[in-house]
Amino acid sequence: MRRLRSGWSALADRVDEATPAHRDRSVDALRAFAILGVVLGHWLVTALTAADGGLHGTSPLAAMPWLAPVSWVFQTLAVFFLVGGHVAAQSHASARARGIPYGSWVRQRLGRLFRPVAALLTLWAVVAGGLLLGGAEWDTVRTLLQLVWSPLWFLLVFAALTAATPLVARLHPLWPLAVVAGVDLWRFGLDGPQWTGWVNVAAGWLVPYTLGAAWSRGAFTRRRPALFLLGGGAAATAALVVWGGYPASMVGVPGAAISNLNPPTLAAATFGLAQCGLALLLREPLARAMGRPRTWAKVALLNLSAMTVFLWHQTAMMSVTALGLLFSTDLPGLHTAPASPGWIAARLLWLPVFAAALAICWAAFRVHEQPRSARTPRGGPTVPPPRAPRSRPARLEEAGHA
Hints:
The protein is mainly alpha-helical. The chain has 17 helices and two strands. The protein has a domain of 258 residues.
């Protein structure tokens, strides 16, 4: 154990020393917290129950609506879009200054987003085909595929906004916020067609994305604007929930008439403003925390595999659930209906098991997140092998900021 600790300390020191001095480590910390929030949120509010010979998706939020505050903590997508807008705007400005064409810039930025997706889709195409051929019910296969595909909508929206960075980087966040408000007024207040809500898939996430772009231009050098976002966003969200009829949960709840997330509503947008304000206020404490080598090394290494963790966390949970069926069809917190506080206590005990399964997925598939030039083919390296672990922060400059 002492040797393990000594080895980790040495690795952390090397990662710290090799990190460029100009790097804003608080940005990486916010991204890491956003990813972990999504992962833990899904593991806590998504349940697969075994009934009628198959698996069916449900949520503890449906039976226990008083758990809605859990979604306030773990629905962190606005922070991810905030960081994404900040980094993309900075990167594009730097590319323009260096004369890098837009096409080269956008290919580099989107490459890391989509390289890991191919492995996920390939594996699940094989798994789904095998389940159907083995006699599994279509409803079970569809439930599993929906959980696998649910993170992909986020990547498509994020990729579209990244590609549009030159057009939207200087857009004031009030404009997309006004679009979200107008769409909600049309479909909820004036009985307009519900399909118009999907306009908010772009407009809703454009709000934190443009806030991030404004951050890159120095809009939040003082604390007052961030405090205004936090206070104003929280007050507006509370008013919309209490008097506007919006759900208290910031994620979708099975059977609910309205979802704040699919598509995003005005309540989700104002809640995102509050989250962004809090994130911006936490920059300085996070920067101080990231000055500690051991803390920074954990965040840096997570950022190297952020997309792998994001894409495979649902697969990890489903794998544990499926393997559990080999022992019992009613393991508490895993197969049982999420309808009591006892289920919550049992689910918390399963989180380390989910994390272990995710670690296996990470070890197997993280290679797909690395640039091709960083891999070693069977025939031998085509480029000089990077020094380890000093090469990791260098890769982080490209990988973590994609």
